[in-house]
Amino acid sequence: MPLSSKTVISNIEKLPGLFTKADLHKSLQTRREEKKSTRKPPARRKQSSALTSKDLTVIENTMHAMILAGFLTKEKNKFRRNSLEIEGTITVNESRDTVIKYNEQEILIKRDDLGSAQRGDQVTARIFEFRRGFFCAEVRKVHRRKKEFHIARITGRSGSIATLRLLDVPGEIESCANIKKISVAKDDYAVITLTGNYLAGKSESVIQEVFSGENEDYDFIRIKNRHSLPEDHTVIGDTGINITMPESELKVRKDYTKLFTVTIDGDTAKDFDDAISIKTSGRNTKIYVHIADVSAFVKPGSPLDIEAFERGTSFYLGNRVIPMLPETLSNDLCSLREGVPRLTLTAEMNFDSKGNLEKFEAFRGIIKVNKRLTYTRADQLITGKGLGQLTRTVQQMYRFARILGQKRRDDGRLDLNLTDVEVIYEKSHVKEIRFATRLKSHMLIEEFMLSANEAVSRELKEKEIPSLYRVHEPMSPDNIESLKKFLTVLGLKIDPALPLGRSVQDILYRVQGKPYEQVVNLVVLKSMMSAYYGIEPLGHFGLGFLDYTHFTSPIRRYPDLIVHRCLKSLIDKKEPAYTVAQLIQIGEKSSAMERVAQKAERDMVKMKSCRIMKNRVGEVFDVVISGVSKYGMYVSIIEMPIEGMIPLRNISDDYYVLQEDDFTIVGRKYNRRYRLGDRIKARLSLVDIDLLRIDFELYSGPGKK
C-alpha cells in the first residue's frame, strides 16, 4: 500500500529539527517494517519494506508543498522542520469549505477536526495531511471566540436535557443543554453560549433566551448574531459628545435660518441628515444642500468616534435599526428637525440653465427647517396646483432636478431599473413584501445629493486635500466579454463606437417594457465592479462621474463624517485632518463594514420572505429565470420581489446541465432549454427559515428545442 502524505508529515514531525531526505526515507521504511511485524502477511504474497516509486512521488510532493508553505526550510542538502502549528481565523471560502488562511494559502479544516471551533474563532491548528493541493489541519486550541452567543433550534428533549442544532455555523453541529428550570418546546429557537464542556456526548451549552418560531423578534436577534453586528451603544454621556456648542463655534457659522428650507424623508424617518433650499436669478439656479454637522459633536479619537469607526455604518434590519451613532445624536442633536436651529455643513452650488456647475462654496452653517416633508407629501406638491411658497419651492426644485438628471444621462450615467424592496409591517409582524414605488420626490433628493457629493469631491481633489473618495471602477475586460455574450443571446449588442457606459445605457432603454427587462438590468449590475472607499479620486463608472465622494449622510456613514472633517480643514485653512495612511485604514474598514451591512440587510429580507411564503407551499407562481448555475435556476416571482431556486436535481424529466456560453440550462436527452430571462411557471416546494432557503419545482416551461 503506497504511503500517504499523512504518514510522511507524521514522520517528519518525529525527526530531529534538521534532517536529510535519507533520514526521512529510513524513518518511513522502519515504520513500515514495524507495522509489518505486527500482523501476518498473506501466505501467497511476500511484502517488501522498500519505498516504491509511488512512495517517493508522495514524499517529494509533500515536502515540496511544505517548503512552499513554510513548514520546511531547505538548507543545502538538509531540511529544517518548522512548526507545523498555525494560528488564524476560521473562515468559509467560496466553495463552502472551512479553512484557515495561512501565508496566502487556504488550510482545510474538516468537520471532524474542528472540535468546538466555529466560523470567526481565532485558533491554533496543526497540519497533518496534504491532498489534492491543500493542507489539512485539526484545531488544537480556541484562543478567542468571535461569538459569545449562538442561535440554535431545539430539535428534541429527553427529560431535563434538550438537544439543539446550531444555526449559521459550518456543518451540522449539535449541542445539549440542561432545561430543568426552563420552559422550551421542540422547534423553539434559543440564544445559547457554549461552555466548552460536554453533556450527553455533545458540546454543552447554556440557554440564555428562548423564542417561539412565530416570534418575529427572533428574526432581528438571528441576523444580528449571524453577522456579528454591534450591540447597543455603550458610549454615552459626556464621553465624546458636545451637548452644547461654544459661542466661538456659533460665531463662525453662516446664518441660513431666514432661507426657506425643507427636508424630504421617509414616513418613519427620525434621523434627518439633509435639508435643501433653492434660489433662482435669471437663467441661473443656486442650490443649497445642508448636511447635519456631526463632526461638531463627534471629536476625532473620542470613544464615540472610535465606536463609529468600528461600526462604519448604520444597519437597517427590517423595522429595526442598529445606528452608527447613539440616538441622542442621530435622532436629536444632529437631526435637522423642523423649527429647531441646527448646525450644518452647507454646500452652495451655482448652476447655469443647462445644469453645469459654475461655482461651489462650502460653509459651516446654522439652519432652521421650515417644513419636514415625506416623500409622499412632496410628490403631491410636485403634481399639485397650490400657489403657496412651499408648493412653489418644491416644484421649482423638481424642475431643476430634472435638468440635472438629463445632463447626467447625457454624460453617460447608467440608470438601472432595479426597484427597491419594501417590507410592510403590521404590529411588528411582516404583512407584505412588495416592490417599492419610486416617486418624483425620490428623484429630486437623489439629484441634489449627487450634485453635492460630486462638487465636494471635485473641490477636495483640486485643492489637493487628502480625503476619502467613493470609487466605482469600470467593468473588467472579462466582465465586459461575459456581458456581451449574454446580450448577444437576446439579440442585443454593445456599440463599440460609443463609450461603454452610454452604449449600455442605450441597451437599458431598449429593453424597457420587455419581459427580460429586470434580468438585463440585474446582469448589468452584476457585471459592474463593487464600489469602495479609497484615497484616489478614480471616479464613479455607474454614475458617469469623474469626481465622487460621500458627503451627505454623516449620521449613518462613517466615511461621510471623515469627508466633513477633511472639508472643514480646507474651509478653516488648516492642516489636513488625516494622513494618507489613516485614510487608507478608514477606507478599508468602512468598505468592509458596508459589505457586512449589505449582507445582513439581504438576509433579513430573506427571513421575511420565508415567513411570507411558508404557508404558500404548493402554490404555482409566474417566475422569471434570474440566474443559472451548475446547481440550478434562480427564479424571481414576477408579482413580488421574492427569489428562490429550482435545483437541477429536482427536475426529473431529463438530466440537465449548465451551458455557460449562452446562460442556458439544457436537458441532455431531449434538449429542452431554460434560458436566463425566460418566464415560466413554478410551484413552491420548500421554505426553510433555518437555511434562509426557498425552493421551487418546475410546473411548466417554454419547451424550447
* C-alpha termini separation: 51 Å
Task: Provide the number of structural domains.
Answer: 5
Strands, total number: 34
Query: Looking across the biggest beta sheet, what order are the strands in?
Result: 4-5-6-8-7
> In terms of per-residue confidence, which ranges show pLDDT below 50 for 5 or more consecutive residues?
235-240, 701-705
Average pLDDT value? 90
Structural class: alpha+beta
What radius of gyration results from the CA coordinates?
Answer: 31 Å
User: What characteristic shape results from the CA principal axes?
Assistant: globular
How helix-rich are the residues, as a percent range?
A: 25-40%
Strand content: 25-35%
- Main sheet summary: 5 strands, mixed, barrel
Number of helices: 15
